Amino acid sequence: MQITLKNFTKSFDGNVVIDRMNLEIRDGEMLALLGPSGCGKSTTLLAISGIHRVNGGQILFGDRDVSNLPSQKRNVGVVFQNYALYPHMNAYENIAFPLQVRGQSKTEIEKAVGQIAALTHIEPYMSRRPGQLSGGQQQRVALARALVRRPDVLLLDEPLANLDAKLRLEMRSEIRRIQQETGITAILVTHDQVEAMSMSDRIAIMDQGEIMQISTPDDMYRNPVNRFIAGFMGNPPIVMVDGRVEGTAFETTSGFRLPLPGRLGGLKHGRPISIGIRPEHFGSTGAHTVAGTISFVEPQGRESHFDVRVGEGVVLRSIQPSRRDVAVGQPVEWPIDIESTLVFDEQGKTL
Amino acid sequence: MTRNFSIWPVVLILLLISAPIVIMYSYLALGTVTTTEPGDLLPSKLALDNWRFLFDTSTAAGNIWIATLNTFVFAASIMVIVLTVSATGGYAMSRLNLPFRRFVLSGIMVMHAFPSVTLIIGVFLVLQFTGLYDTMIGVILVKASLMLPFGIWIMKGFYDAVPWEIEMAGVQDGASRFTVWRRLILPQVRAGLVALGLFAFLDGWGEYVLPRILAPTNDFRVLSIVLELVGNPDRTNYDFDLFKTVGVFYTLPVLVIFVFFQHRLMDIFGGGTKG
Hints:
The complex is a heterodimer of chains A (351) and B (275).
Chain A: E1 3-12, E2 15-25, E3 30-34, H1 41-49, E4 56-61, E5 64-65, E6 76-79, H2 91-101, H3 106-120, H4 135-147, E7 153-157, H5 165-182, E8 185-190, H6 193-199, E9 202-207, E10 210-215, H7 217-222, H8 227-232, E11 239-246, E12 249-251, E13 257-259, E14 272-277, E15 288-299, E16 303-311, E17 314-321, E18 331-336, E19 342-344
Parallel strand pairs in A: 3-8, 3-9, 6-7, 7-8
Antiparallel strand pairs in A: 1-2, 1-4, 4-5, 9-10, 11-12, 11-14, 12-13, 14-19, 15-16, 15-18, 16-17
Helix pairs in contact in A: 2-3, 2-4, 3-4, 4-5
Chain B: H1 8-31, E1 34-35, E2 45-46, H2 64-95, H3 101-113, H4 120-130, H5 136-160, H6 164-172, H7 177-185, H8 190-205, H9 209-214, H10 223-230, H11 240-271
Antiparallel strand pairs in B: 1-2
Helix pairs in contact in B: 2-5, 2-8, 3-5, 5-8, 6-7, 8-11, 10-11
């Protein structure tokens, strides 16, 4: 079901946290709300679920205005960060609870719970209490409980934050699989860009209660609308160098020069700009080369990260397939893919 | 378990300190079933005479079973009232956005700090005014309400320890706030309810001052009043052995409850201390 936020406004004790936000989640898509902590993403999620009252604007499920409906009447499934399983009930009872509350018959409940348990692969653990389940199993039970009554929308609040690294990878693809198999509209709240990129169809980046950009993960990585997003997406992050326009080139105060991408002709001479170079665009291909000395090497197994000092106070980062022929202190001359670099103006907007 | 000090000195010290109490209690219990020659230290023969009051209503103790039943009803009513009001009130204090919440909370704290005896004149006036003076219902209400600040505060602590998300999840699953409280939250604070219930029951069982003052002539005699009657040395048929035996009889249920539930009672100090 399509979810629409129209001029959604939320304030706490008079402090406006989210001011007239507009957002549309398409039917059957998984949208990630990505942003640093305190940006209002969880507030948005809780408003959609009905736990927070809206202070202004509308929330629409399809054509139905649910802005003033209590949670119980919204038909929203939520998976909380700590899963919020009911500790005194076993997995089966946990999943059956939403159906019991609705007064469904025993056979109906058994059938529905059985189906959802098969989908989430938790059949062997149905008689265990949450305390006897591992983190990943608890997560599956929480998912099953959220999905069992076929909600209009599934909300996931930092679903992977409490899992260890290996389980996180596993559950990442599991949640995506379950979402795609059920075809449910889902909203994922996370502060982890890797999670957002790998799990969702589209990402909405939020900062200070505002949505800055909504796009597909790929597009957002390649064409961020501003410096904040460019810095948020990608790990290791993009390197920003501040300077100004010198003819058709970019120069820092210390004299480090780079040609500007061809698409940016006619920038005013002397205009302050900054240039963003992603690690994968330095060190492998490109027409222009930059000379410097290696200041730091971080081997990662399959690949290596290098920090290269290319000028006074300018350190570029490079990521390359693992190589052992270079070491700290060694001078190198590596190519830069100028056309892939990002250029931002003084306000941080992409040019 | 690994010990980094030996346990026996501790046991020895504890034994020494508690020896007087242990000796007194064992003599008290022993004395009810034996007779001892004057001047002797150890009892000489078994005698169950003192327990005659259990069947014989002609002793100073009167009909002990009616008094026991009365005490039970008294303590149980207090327990039920304290549990109901604390379970609901504690939840409201912990979770609901009540007007004057802070004021009420500090009020409860102040009430908790007051010794109940200081309120007795006011309580007396209220009971007179409402016509509940000299009735057991009045005493039960007074006793229960004096326990409530403690109960509500303890239960609030237990509710505070239950994560909000459980409540949110319940609401999201379509349950009403009441259903959430009854089916999801209440089971999480069961330890607190059990401990508080035991406390309330034991407190009611041992209560003497309030029934004595607020229902002096009432026929609804609880055991503590019976004990007072039996133990009055001005009576013509004063019998110290009977006094001892009724005292032991009065204590037995408390002992049984302690033996079975002592770890439950400790829960109050484990879980409910967050304010």
